[in-house]
Design goal:
The structure is a homodimer. By secondary structure, chain A is α/β, with parallel strands linked by helices. Chain A contains 24 helices and 16 strands. Among the domains of chain A are: 225 residues, 3-Layer(bba) Sandwich (Glucose Oxidase, domain 1); 181 residues, Transcription Elongation Factor S-II, Chain A (Up-down Bundle), CATH 1.20.930.
Chain lengths: 745, 745
C-alpha cells in the first residue's frame, strides 16, 4: 500500500559487490562476480507477463484470485529451483454489507459510492469481483449530523478550526486525502468528538488539477475512490486481534472489542464527484487559503447547513492470509538471513500496487535460481517473501514476524522491502548504517532510459532540486547518497520497528504520476499506458535488489557502516533541540502578543474572533545525555573506520575474526530498540525511527523525544531524552565491540 | 485605478501636528491645534451621500456623467468656501466599435464579452451607459491563430515556456490577470512575436476560489471582467499623443503612429466564464503547477488545438479631460504648495474605484473650509485636485503636471495621493524622507473599529505577520513605521517620478477584499454591502490626509527627515549588490550543471526536453560609487539630525533661517532625479523609485541599476551605478546645505 511519496535515496563497500570468494563455496564466480552476472538475467517481457497474470482479476485478501496468486507464486519459486512454501495466518477482515452516505439538508443528495468501468480497460469492468469502495477497520455505525470540512484532518487543522470558532464535537467531518496516512483522520476526528468521518480525494491533490484524468490521462477521474485500511497502524500493525503474537490459528470465536486498532467512529472514502455537492453545501467561515482544493466552489468549513447521514455495516470475518516464502540456503553462514519481501495482495487488480514490485521479485528469484544452477552458493541464507494482507495493515509480514520473532532476532541480518515500483528515480530508505552499501548498489545499476548509474541520476536530481548552494555542496562532496528514514506504510515496519532488524526499502518512481492508487483503475491497462510501460524499471528493480542480496549474502565483513548512522543521528539530535527552542520561542512570542493585545487589535471585526490561549511556558530541557551519547557514537564510529582500514585485506581470510566483527555489527540495529517500546505504543520498539503517531506514513525520528515535545508533554521530555540516549549508548558499545574484534588478533 | 496591493505604511515630528503658531497668521488655533479640530469634522453620512451621487451612473472619461460629476465637485468646493476651477485637456480615448473573440477549432465557441446585470443591484442594469468590456489603447486588429496559455505573461513565464519547447511567435496568447500591471502582458507577448493577447481573471486569483461571488459574496462572478488601460505606462503616463507637454489644445487632427504607448498587438480582457472553454481546449504540455488556476480543468499550455480569432476595432477620438482644482492660499509662504489629489473618473460606476477616495477628499475640503471660516490661515497654499482620466493612464494628473511643470518645480512641496479606499489597515507609500511624518499622522488618527491609533494597529499587524524574530524586533524597536516605495498605478507618478516632488500615497484597506475591480459591479450596492459599508474608513481617510495637509502646510521646518531615506537607500544598495551576486552565482551553477550533463540526465525522457543555454558569464561590477554615495548620505543625515536637535525651539521664530533650511530640504527629492531620465524611458526621471519596466504597478528601486542587472545588460551596469550614485551625492549635498543653514546664525 506504499504511497507515492518516497522519491528518496542512496563506495566504501563497492568491492563487496564483486568480491572474490574469501571462504569456501562451490563454483567459481564469473568475471565481474555473481552480482554482475545476476544483472544480465532479468527480462522485461517476463516481468510484464507475470504482472498481467497476477493482476488479471481482483485479488484482495481472502479472495479466490488472491489464493490463486499465492499458489502461482509458489509454483514460480519451485520452477526456479528454490525451496518454497506457503505459511497461513488467520486474520480479521471486514467487508461492507451496507454503505449509505446521503445529504439531507439543505438539498438531498445520495453519494454514488461506485467507480464506473472505463471503455478500453477490460478489468475495470470486473465489478462482481471488486471490493466496494470503503475503508477497512472502520467500525459499524449510523450517524446523522451537520458536516464540517477539516482540510487534511491532522491535529494542526483542528487548532485552526478552533481559531475560527468551529468545533467538530457532534458533527461529521469531511477530510481530504493527503497530509497524513488515512487512518490518522478518523483517529484525530474522534479525539475531537466527531461522530463520523468522510475522506475524499480532492482534485487539487489527486485529480484533474494534477493532469488529465483517466482514461485520457493517468490521473484520478471524477468517481475514482481511494480504498484503504484505517486501522490504527501507528499503535501496532498486523491483525487487530493478535498484537505481539502470530495469528497462526483460526479462532473459533472473537470479540471485536479486543481489536484495539479499529476506528472509534465510522469512516468512508468517497470520490471528488461525490464530495462536490457536500462541500458546495457548506456555510460558515471561508476555509483558509491553503485548505482550498480544486473543486469549482468556494470552500467553507461549516458546520452545516449541509447535514449528512453516514451508515456503515460490515461483515466481520476471519480470512486466511497466505505468505509465500522461498529460501536459498547459505553455504557458510546458513543461520544468517538476508530477506527481500514484497506483498502480492491488492485492493483490486493492483497492477501497480503491489504487482509492479512483486513481479520484479519473481524475476529476481529466477535470476538467483539461475546463478545457483551455475554453481553459486550464497554464504548466507536468502529468503524471498511474497506477503499477503499488506493492504489491511501489513498482516502477512507482521504475523510472520511475530510468529518467528525469536528466530528472526537470532538470524535476520537485513530485511529489504519493495512495494509498488514505477518509472523514474531510484529511491532508498532505511537503516543509515547501510547508506554506503546502498550507494554502491545504486552505482552498479544502470538507469534503463538514461544509461547512467541510477545513483548518479539521483545525485543529479538532488543537485538540480537543491535550494541553496550549501545543499548542493553537500550533495556533490559527500561520497554517499543520503537515504531516507523509514516511517511506515509497507512491510518493513515489523522487521525494523518491532524487532530492530536493519532494513531497507528500495524502488523507482517519480516519473510515474498517477491517480489510480487503491482504485479499480490500478490495473494492467493503466500501468502499461502510463507507468513503467515496458517494464524496464521493473528489470532495474530486480537488478538492484538482486545485487543487494548477493552483496549482503556474500560479504565477509557485513557492510554496516556506523559513520552515516552517527552523522544522521547527530542531525536528528540538533533537530529536536531546535524544535524545543522553536516551541518555547513561539509560546513566549504568543504570550507577548496576547499581553500587548495584538490578536484582538489585528482581527477583522466582521469575522468571528477566538482569543488565542496563553501557552503554558515551555521549560528548558536537558539535552546533554543525548548529545553525549551521540558524540560517543560518533567517536566509536570513527575508531571503527580506522580499525577497518587498518585490518586490511588479510581480515577477509580470518573467519573467526570476521564472525566476531559481524556479530558486533549485527548488534547495532537491535541496540537502537528498547524492550518497553515507545510511550503509549509498546509494540514499536525502535527509538530512532517510527511512524508518527499523528502522521502514519511519515517518519518521526527520535520519536519518543520529538513527539513528547510536539505534543507538549513537558514532564516526560527529559526521561525520553534519557531513554533515547540509552539506545545510542548501546549502539556505541556494539560499535566499540566491533572495533575491538577488528583489532584483536 | 489603484489595485489592491498596497497594504503598507508608518514621532519625531509629532509636535508639528499640533504646533503652536510660530509665524503671524490670523485666528488662534483651538486647544489641540487646527489638525485636532479638523479631525472632529468629517461625517460618514456625508461621505456616503457624495459616494451615492457620484457613482449613480457610469462616468468614464468623456461621458456625460463624468462631466456632470466635474461640475458637481466644483460646486462642492465652492460651497465649502474654496477657490476652485476646472482645467480642461484634450486627450486620445478609444472606445470599441467591434469586439469578436471566437474559437474556431477544435470546437466552435463565441465569447459573450458582457457582464450581466444582477438583481438587487440597480446600477448594474445601466447597460446603455456602460463601456463595453475592453482594454483601452489596444490597437485595432483581426488575427486568427492557435492559442497559448502564458500564465501571468511576464518575462519569466516566457522563459518557462521556452524550457517546455513552446514558442508563442505567430500565436495568440491568453494570460491571466495578476503578477504584473495588465499593460505588461501584451507588451511582453508582442516582444515574443505573439499576434494577439487575451487577458482573463482566473478564479484562483479573482473569483470563487477567493470567496463567494457577487451577489452572494464580494468576489468576481463568472462573467465579471476587469476593464483597464494597456497603454505602456512604464514608458510615460498621460495622453499617448503628448508626452512631456500638456494636452491643452484640441488637435485638429492626429496620427495614431505618434501615440508611442499603444500596444503592438490587439488585446482584450475576458471573464473566467468566457476563458473556460478556451483553456479547456488547450493541449500540449501540462502547465507548471504554479501556473494552474481554479477552473475545473487540467491546465495545459498549448499551442492549440484551440484556434481563436480576435477581432477588435476602436473609435479613436479626442475627448476632454477636466481636472477640478481647489485652492486655499497660504498666508506665510503662498508659493509653497501642499497638494492632495484623487481621481473622480471611473471605468463604470466606480463606487470603490475611485469614489471611495474622492468622497473623503470632498469631506476633507469641507473640513478645511470650516477651519478657514473659524480663522485658520495655512502658512502654505493647499491645493485639492479631483483628477479626470486617471483610468486611461493618469491623464488628468499627468497633463496638469506637464502643463504646470515649471511652476510645480518651484512651488510644490509635497503631493499626497489617494485613490480607492476601503476597510482595514492604514497603508502608506512614498518618499522615505516623510516616514516619521507619516508615522505621526497615523498616530493621531484613531481606527474607527478598533479605537486605537491606526499606526499602532498597523504595527501590530506587521508584528503578527512577521516571519522571523529579527523582523519582529525591528518592527517593535523602530520608532517609525516603514513605508513602501511607490511604483505606479495612480496619480502620484507624474509628481514623484517625472518631476521629483516628494509624494505620499495614503489609504485604508485589507479587510475589504472583493472582485469587482473595473467591472459594472463596482457600485454603491456592492460597496455598501461589502467594503467600508458605513464609511467610517472614509472618515478616517479625511482625518488622515486632513491632518497631513495641516501638518505640512503649517510646519515651520519642513518634516523631511533624511535619516529614513539614507537608511532605506542603504538597504536598496545591498539588494542590488546581492542581486548581482545571485545572478552571477546562478549562471555559474547553471553552467556547471550543463557541463556535468545534469539537465539531460534528470529530464523525464517522455517529456519534451529543451537543453538550457549556457549563460554569458556575469561580470563583477564596481558598486563602490553607490556604496560611497550611500554612506555619504547617511553621514549627512546624521549630521542634520544633530544640528536640528541643537537648533532647538528658537529656530521656529527665526524665519530667515527656517526658509534657508526649508529651501535645502525641498531640494532633496528633486536631487534624486536626473534630467536625462531612466535608460530607454526619459520621461521617468527619478533614480530611486520607478514602476518596473516589466512589472508596471510594482516598484523597482534604484531602477537603472536593478533593471540593467535583471535584464542582463552587463555593459551598462557600471555606468548606471555611477548615475545612481550621482543622485545620492546630490541629495547628500542638499542635506549638508540644510545642516549648514541650521548651523548658520
Amino acid at each position: 500500500m506504499q504511497s507515492k511519496s518516497f522519491l528518496v535515496a542512496v563506495s566504501l563497500f563497492a568491492s563487496l559487490l564483486a568480491a572474490p570468494d574469501a571462504f569456501s563455496r562451490e563454483g567459481s564466480p564469473p568475471a565481474g562476480g555473481w552480482a554482475a552476472a545476476l544483472r544480465e538475467i532479468p527480462e522485461p517481457p517476463r516481468i510484464r507477463e507475470s504482472n498481467r497474470l497476477l493482476s488479471a482479476e481482483p485479488h484482495h485478501l481472502g479472495s479466490p484470485y488472491d489464493e490463486h496468486n499465492a499458489r502461482w507464486i509458489l509454483d514460480q519459486f519451485h520452477g526456479y529451483g528454490l525451496e518454497a512454501s506457503i505459511e497461513t495466518f488467520y486474520v480479521l477482515f471486514p467487508t461492507p454489507r451496507e454503505r449509505i452516505l446521503e445529504m439531507q439538508e439543505p438539498v438531498r443528495f445520495r453519494a454514488a459510492l461506485a467507480e464506473p468501468p472505463v471503455a478500453g480497460d477490460p478489468t475495470s469492468a470486473q465489478t462482481s469481483q471488486q471490493l466496494p469502495t470503503y475503508n477497512a477497520y472502520s467500525i459499524d455505525g449510523d450517524v446523522t449530523a451537520p458536516l464540517v470540512y477539516v482540510n487534511y484532518g491532522v491535529p494542526a487543522d483542528y487548532e485552526k478550526l478552533a481559531s475560527l470558532g468551529v468545533d467538530v464535537a457532534g458533527k461529521i467531518v469531511i477530510a481530504r486525502y493527503g497530509g497524513s496516512w488515512r487512518g490518522i483522520k478518523p483517529k484525530v476526528a474522534a479525539e475531537h468528538g466527531a461522530l463520523g468521518c468522510i475522506i475524499y480525494s480532492d482534485p487539487r491533490d489527486d485529480g484533474f488539477f494534477q493532469g488529465d484524468v483517466y482514461p485520457k490521462g493517468a490521473m484520478r477521474p471524477d468517481q475514482g475512490v481511494q480504498r484503504g485500511s484505517v486501522a490504527d497502524m501507528p499503535t501496532y500493525s498486523g491483525d487487530p486481534l493478535t498484537p505481539d503474537v502470530g495469528a497462526t490459528r483460526e479462532p473459533s470465536r472473537f470479540d471485536l472489542k479486543d481489536a484495539r486498532t479499529l476506528t472509534k467512529i465510522p469512516v468512508l472514502p468517497i470520490s471528488y464527484g461525490d464530495a462536490r455537492p457536500l462541500l458546495a453545501a457548506l456555510g460558515g467561515p471561508l476555509a483558509p487559503t491553503e485548505w482550498r482544493g480544486a473543486l469549482p466552489l468556494t470552500y467553507h468549513v461549516g458546520p452545516g447547513p449541509a447535514k449528512v447521514r453516514l451508515k456503515l455495516a460490515f461483515d466481520w470475518k476471519i480470512v486466511p492470509a497466505r505468505d509465500v516464502i522461498a529460501r536459498i540456503p547459505g553455504s557458510v553462514w546458513p543461520d544468517e538471513w538476508i530477506l527481500h519481501g514484497n506483498h502480492y495482495d491488492a485492493w483490486v487488480n493492483g497492477s501497480s500496487d503491489p504487482i509492479s514490485g512483486l513481479s520484479p521479485l519473481l524475476e529476481e528469484a529466477r535470476a538467483l535460481g539461475e546463478l545457483v544452477r551455475k554453481g553459486w552458493r550464497p554464504k548466507r541464507t536468502i529468503l524471498l517473501c511474497a506477503w499477503d494482507g499488506e493492504e489491511e495493515g501489513l498482516f502477512g509480514s507482521t504475523e510472520w514476524v511475530e510468529t518467528h520473532a525469536e528466530e528472526l532476532r537470532r538470524k535476520a541480518v537485513v530485511y529489504i522491502n519493495s512495494d509498488s515500483n514505477g518509472r523514474g528515480f531510484f529511491f532508498a530508505g532505511g537503516s543509515h548504517t547501510l547508506e554506503p552499501f546502498v550507494t554502491d548498489v545504486g552505482s552498479a545499476v544502470v538507469d534503463p532510459e538514461k544509461k547512467i548509474p541510477v545513483a548518479q541520476r539521483l545525485r543529479f536530481k538532488r543537485i538540480q532540486d537543491a535550494k541553496t548552494a550549501d545543499e548542493r555542496r553537500e550533495i556533490r562532496d559527500r561520497k554517499d547518497l543520503r537515504i531516507e528514514a523509514l516511517g511506515s506504510g509497507s512491510d518493513f515496519t515489523p522487521f525494523l520497528q518491532h524487532l530492530g532488524i536493519a532494513s531497507l526499502n528500495l524502488g523507482y518512481g517519480g516519473e510515474d504520476d498517477g491517480g489510480v492508487y487503491h482504485s479499480i483503475y490500478d490495473d494492467f491497462a493503466w500501468f502499461t499506458r502510463f507507468s513503467d510501460t515496458d517494464f524496464v524499471y521493473g528489470k532495474a528493480l530486480s537488478q538492484t535488489i538482486g545485487t543487494a542480496l548477493i552483496g549482503l549474502a556474500d560479504a565477509d565483513v557485513l557492510p554496516f557502516d556506523p559513520v552515516p548512522l552517527s552523522d544522521t543521528v547527530a542531525g536528528y539530535v540538533k533537530e529536536v533541540r531546535d524544535l524545543a527552542k522553536e516551541r518555547r520561542d513561539a509560546a513566549e512570542e504568543l504570550d507577548r502578543q496576547i499581553a500587548d493585545g495584538v490578536p484582538q487589535a489585528v482581527a477583522d471585526p466582521r469575522l468571528p474572533f477566538v482569543a488565542p490561549k496563553k501557552e503554558e511556558p515551555a521549560p528548558y530541557f536537558d539535552f546533554s545525555p543525548l548529545e553525549n551519547a551521540s558524540a560517543a557514537l560518533a567517536r566509536a564510529a570513527k575508531e571503527y573506520t580506522a580499525a577497518l582500514a587498518a585490518a586490511g585485506p588479510a581480515l577477509a581470510s580470518d573467519r573467526a575474526r570476521v564472525e566476531r566483527v559481524n556479530a558486533a555489527l549485527r548488534g547495532i540495529e537491535p541496540a537502537l530498540t528498547l524492550e518497553e517500546g515507545l510511550p503509549g505504543r509498546p509494540w514499536y520498539k525502535h527509538y530512532i525511527y517510527a511512524p508518527g503517531f499523528y502522521t502514519g506514513y511519515s517518519v518521526k525520528t527520535l520519536p519518543a523525544v520529538r513527539e513528547a515535545i510536539e505534543q507538549k508533554q513537558w514532564p516526560t521530555v527529559n526521561s525520553e531524552i534519557a531513554a533515547t540516549a540509552k539506545v545510542l549508548s548501546k549502539a556505541a558499545e556494539k560499535v566499540i565491540e566491533a572495533t575491538n574484534a577488528l583489532r584483536a588478533p
